[in-house]
Amino acid sequence: MPSAVAPNVAPVKVLIIGGSYGGLGAALNLLDFSKGKYSRFSGKVGNDPKAGPESRVPVQIKIVDERDGYYHLIGSPLGLASTPHAEKFWTKFDEIIALRDPSITVAQGSAVNINATTKTATIFDSKSGKEYEEKYDFLVAASGLRREKQVVPQEKTKDKYLVEAAKQIAAVGVGEGVKNGKGVVVIGGGAVGIEMASELAVVHPTQRITLIHSHDRLLSSEPLPIEVANLCLTSLREQGVEVVLGQRVESSVEVEEGKYKLRLSNGNERTAGFVIWAISKQHPSTDYLPKEVHNSESGLVVIKDTLHFNAPGPFSTNHFAIGDLVQWSGIKRCGAAMHMGFLAANNIYQEILVSRGVKKEPTYLTYPEVPAMIALACGKQAISYSVEDGAKVGEDIMEVFFNDDLGFMICWNYLQLGTPSAEIEKGNTEKDIQILEEQVNDLSVKEKMIAGAVISAA
């Protein structure tokens, strides 16, 4: 039977700023809760028998994102090196089946400011070029970090993004300088630089790829043991990538088309056919939020373990922040963002039930402190590290964390973006449910490893 919601009740308005891993995780899990279904991250499917009619509440979820689609951000090293993957990694929001629900709307634009007292957001509409006011009952800030070009596309529409990606793919693959043997130089030996260099080596095996890092070890900015850095170094060199450590690139000048001259800190000069800057220049996308919710130095949003803003006054309730823009322990990863989205959805739903008189007190789920852990794609194999399991490397690690598309289908299936919200509501056979549960449970194991947190059900 369809899971009906309470009739003649005004829907709860939830505004989500950001439509990536965390934002979509929050929206879709909240949609599940509101219809009396198991959360899609719970490892179960179908209607939750514990959710009575009074627990089914109408919601109106609005997602605002600068892009016109969901972009698989962690796949950028491959998407900016391979044309088929560039096309695959960006899906317009109106093409995502899971979002075709009357309770969800998506608007292309950006938040300008938030008034927590009146629960009103000023939104800039990208299509009209005008601003408008949006009322909300709950707000989720999930707008992430702004990253530099070459490592993440800057365009906001799929059509323009494909042009941007095509230019970089051509430059690293068939550009004049690259073809003439000067190769590609990747500057920066963090996670992004390692993956950029290794993906280029796989996609363009005949090209000369060089990675230059200013420190004496790779991953020098991450709280990881030297063993992880050494595994990355060995893997890169096995793929034919030349790795230069302990030298800073002081200047990079395009002296003519397809020819760059680089000057290193030791005075040496190098030439390249194309240069990719993979230095960590990223800034929280939080300009629309007031200063009192930020860390004054980092700009990250300070939160409680329930994901509420850790700020006085009206921001202390009904306002949540998730994903890369929050100040929290652990290395920022898409798995953590999705898990935060689930927790925010649960906690919003709990507050809705209390406000409707269904419960006396909310049953919050909290986000734990997260130890350092990482999974890196390095060519045809991957390297993982966690405190429990230590450092591992191999093609089997690649299969678990990334498969052959840098995790695109893992994330897509875990969010269930290709599944219409009504599919389970209209009833499944026992066999259908068993298949879905097996798929979800399999992905939950991978997600637990990536997120570093148990994906628990409310």
Automatic annotation (TrEMBL):
Gene Ontology molecular function: any one: flavin adenine dinucleotide binding
Pfam families reported in the protein's UniProt record: Pyr_redox_2
Record domain FAD/NAD(P)-binding: where: 13-341
Coiled coil segments of this chain: none
InterPro entries associated with the record: FAD/NAD-bd_sf, FAD/NAD-binding_dom
Lineage top rank: taxon: Eukaryota
Gene Ontology CC entries for this record: cytoplasm
Annotated PANTHER family: APOPTOSIS-INDUCING FACTOR 1, NUCLEOTIDE-DISULPHIDE OXIDOREDUCTASE AMID-LIKE, PUTATIVE (AFU_ORTHOLOGUE AFUA_1G17180)-RELATED
Protein known as: FAD/NAD(P)-binding protein
Organism for this UniProt entry: Glarea lozoyensis (strain ATCC 20868 / MF5171)
